[in-house]
């Protein structure tokens, strides 16, 4: 029995003289045009791509793919199971195809665009015979002011169809809508959930407000409570008094996802790998206490960014953040640099004297980078300052109080430096109120997400994707220069790519010469075996466990791959352990 929406859609197809037994219109638009479409749909892309990236690993080996189309039915992004993606390509269910009803007859994307509501089109409900092996579930995405922006679709073989796919499509569409609202409104409040039966869904009714508390956006749940006509009106004070919660308030620089206060998000310091998140959580906790912080990690791992996060998300955020690289200042200048000097204190000194970095930081934060490279004499002077909380500028006999918080960082192993007599133990314990170990990139499991984040930043939000081969190439490198090196490689890649895709050839790794430059004596270079194992695991991961595809990605024969899998005891392609 066909639903009314499907019946109406079939009627439209017949009236447009589409022939169900013929081939549907199969034009694929050029990559240049896709790039333009992506640019035209910038907010939609910006808010939906991160959700697709999160969804992608869950779809591998499930025979499902997720697709994003714009409001004209053009498919602009897809993630999911590569094996099913191949089958879907036979009917052009892929990037660049147009799935409006005019082209593809009754189908979830095109019909959801016309009906402007979520819909699942199962096997035989498709108008064209060639599409009847599919079941597709689509949910439209609306802007915070109610315009149709596009569609989220989840497709699979009809044998695997399940109503759950439609729920997931609706949840993703709603998450995109909420993200759009949070990105655009000055203030977002959550209304209390209505108590009526059937309202116990996951979503909160969200209302976006401008500076003057005028309603500028409503999510689906809020529309049900306030109706779309509320747009442009001023929020009634009694609405807030009914128990509405601030979700975001840019005016007060607060951001909370519930009534209880949570760590402030700091998306600039990107990453999702558990050891990295543990360090980030510690940093976010440290932001709210005034202990000194000591950051330890290899060069380029993000220690300075950690220090900025601690400063910016803590109560000192309105005050200065002053970074000092202790290794780049000569030994006889470090005291005047840190503590300041009186006019004419030494040859070449400024006549009026100068305040030191400690004083310049006022009630903010002073970040002492490469603290492990400070001379013993400078260490003694710094220790005195930290103990007495005063500085005495060079050439002066008057001490002045200091108020700045101290965050120090080093790539050196300070306990080893203490043993070798190069670092003072008493200074070490003074600096190490909270100690945070920032992991090197080769120990992180989120290389690709981090790369995608950096690409978005480099490309200024212009969408650019990594091809599977490019991902594999990134993952087979050992990254001795850590995030800084990754950033450099991606900058080059973004520059070289002329379409919306970064291919393997755009990833230019300089191999051993560069590795040697970055390599510190104490760093560990992964062995050839480790690198090979890593590459094999990644290829299997990317191919969703398909050995033939993985072998293709690795550019080796299938039997060679089987032999190597046996050698490394990779028994099940699905069991990739610590990928
Ligand atoms: N998790 C991250 N997310 C986004 N960007 C990052 C991240 N970590 C590092 N970066 C970027 O990588 C570069 C190097 O980071 P940073 O200068 O903070 O490293 P560092 O450990 O202080 O290096 P060094 O010890 O050499 O001073 C910076 O451009 C920084 O913005």
Architecture blueprint of SSEs:
Layout: H1 4-15, H2 31-40, H3 42-59, E1 64-70, E2 75-80, H4 82-89, H5 101-104, H6 108-115, E3 119-121, E4 134-142, E5 148-157, H7 164-184, E6 187-190, E7 206-209, E8 215-218, H8 220-226, H9 237-241, E9 245-249, E10 254-255, H10 274-286, E11 293-296, H11 303-312, E12 321-325, H12 334-339, E13 340-341, E14 354-355, H13 357-360, E15 365-369, H14 376-388, E16 390-391, E17 400-401, E18 405-410, H15 414-419, H16 425-431, E19 434-437, H17 447-458, E20 465-466, H18 468-475, H19 482-496, E21 501-502, H20 511-518, H21 528-542, H22 547-554, H23 558-567
Parallel strand pairs: 11-18, 11-19, 12-15, 15-18, 20-21
Antiparallel strand pairs: 1-2, 1-5, 3-4, 4-5, 6-7, 6-9, 7-8, 9-10, 13-14, 16-17
The structure holds adenosine-5'-triphosphate.
Adenosine-5'-triphosphate is lined by residues 269-271, 297, 299-305, 369, 411, 483-484, 487.
Instruction: Give the uncertain stretches in residue-range form.
Output: 197-202, 252-262, 512-524, 572-579
Work out the helix count. 23
Query: What share of the residues lie within helices?
Result: 25-40%
Taking all Cα atoms into account, the compactness measure Rg is 29 Å
CATH class of the largest domain: Alpha Beta
Q: Strand sequence of the main sheet, in spatial order?
A: 2-1-5-4-3
The name of the CATH topology of the largest domain is Beta-Lactamase
Q: What portion of residues belong to β-strands?
A: 15-25%
Write down the oligomeric state. Answer: single chain
Principal-axis shape: globular
Largest β-sheet summary = 5 strands, antiparallel
Going by helix content, strand content and strand pairing, the class is alpha/beta
When the domains are counted, the total is: 4
Q: What's the mean pLDDT score? A: 83
Distance between the termini: 46 Å
Protein name: Sigma-54-dependent Fis family transcriptional regulator
InterPro entries: AAA+_ATPase, AAA_lid_NorR, GAF, GAF-like_dom_sf, Homeodomain-like_sf, HTH_Fis, P-loop_NTPase, Sigma_54_int
Keywords: ATP-binding, DNA-binding, Nucleotide-binding, Transcription, Transcription regulation
Domain Sigma-54 factor interaction: 269-495
């Amino acid at each position: 029995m066909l639903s009314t929406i499907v019946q109406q859609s079939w009627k439209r197809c017949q009236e447009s003289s589409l022939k169900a037994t013929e081939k549907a219109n199969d034009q694929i638009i050029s990559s240049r045009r896709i790039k333009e479409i992506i640019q035209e749909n910038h907010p939609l892309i910006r808010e939906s791509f991160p959700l697709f990236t999160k969804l992608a690993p869950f779809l591998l080996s499930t025979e499902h793919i997720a697709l994003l189309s714009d409001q004209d039915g053009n498919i602009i992004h897809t993630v999911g199971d590569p094996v099913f993606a191949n089958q879907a390509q036979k009917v052009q269910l892929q990037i660049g195809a147009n799935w409006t009803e005019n082209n593809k007859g009754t189908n979830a994307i095109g019909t959801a665009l016309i009906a402007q509501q979520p819909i699942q089109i199962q096997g035989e409900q498709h108008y064209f015979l060639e599409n009847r092996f599919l079941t597709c579930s689509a949910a439209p995405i609306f802007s915070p002011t109610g315009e149709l922006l596009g569609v989220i679709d989840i497709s699979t073989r009809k044998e695997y169809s399940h109503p759950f796919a439609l729920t997931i499509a609706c949840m993703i569409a709603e998450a995109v809508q909420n993200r759009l609202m949070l990105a655009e409104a000055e203030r977002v409040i959550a209304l209390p959930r209505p108590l009526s039966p059937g309202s116990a869904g996951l979503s909160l009714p969200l209302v976006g407000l401008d500076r003057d508390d005028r309603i500028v956006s409503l999510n689906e749940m809020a529309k049900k409570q306030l109706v779309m006509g509320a747009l442009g009106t001023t929020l009634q004070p009694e609405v807030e008094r009914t128990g509405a919660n601030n979700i975001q308030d840019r005016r007060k620089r607060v951001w909370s996802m519930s009534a209880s206060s949570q760590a402030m998000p700091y998306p600039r310091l990107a990453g999702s790998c558990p050891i990295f998140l543990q360090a980030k959580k510690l940093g976010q906790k440290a932001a709210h206490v005034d202990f000194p912080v000591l950051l330890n990690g290899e060069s380029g791992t993000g220690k300075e960014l950690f220090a900025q996060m601690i400063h910016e998300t803590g109560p000192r955020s309105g005050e200065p953040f002053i970074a000092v690289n202790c290794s780049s200042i000569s030994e006889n200048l470090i005291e005047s640099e840190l503590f300041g000097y009186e006019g004419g204190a030494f040859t070449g000194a400024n006549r009026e004297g100068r305040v030191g970095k400690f004083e310049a930081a006022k009630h903010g934060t002073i970040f002492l980078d490469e603290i492990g490279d400070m001379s013993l004499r400078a260490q003694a002077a710094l220790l005195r300052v930290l103990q007495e909380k005063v500085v005495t500028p060079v050439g002066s006999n008057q001490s002045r109080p200091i108020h700045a918080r101290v965050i120090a960082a080093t790539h050196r192993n300070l306990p080893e430096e203490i043993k070798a007599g190069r670092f003072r133990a008493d200074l070490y314990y003074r600096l190490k109120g909270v100690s945070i170990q920032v992991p090197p990139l080769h120990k992180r499991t989120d290389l690709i997400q981090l790369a995608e984040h950096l690409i978005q930043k480099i490309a200024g939000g212009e969408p650019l994707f990594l091809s599977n081969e490019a991902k594999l190439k990134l993952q087979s490198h050992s990254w001795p220069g850590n995030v800084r090196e990754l950033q450099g490689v991606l900058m080059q890649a973004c520059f070289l790519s002329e379409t919306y895709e970064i291919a393997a050839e755009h990833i230019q790794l300089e191999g051993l010469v560069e590795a040697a430059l970055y390599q510190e004596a104490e760093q560990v270079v992964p062995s050839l075996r480790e690198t090979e194992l890593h590459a094999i695991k990644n290829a299997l991961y990317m191919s969703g466990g398909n050995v033939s595809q993985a072998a293709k990605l690795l550019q080796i024969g299938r039997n060679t791959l089987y032999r190597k899998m046996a050698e490394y005891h990779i028994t099940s392609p699905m069991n990739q352990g610590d990928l």
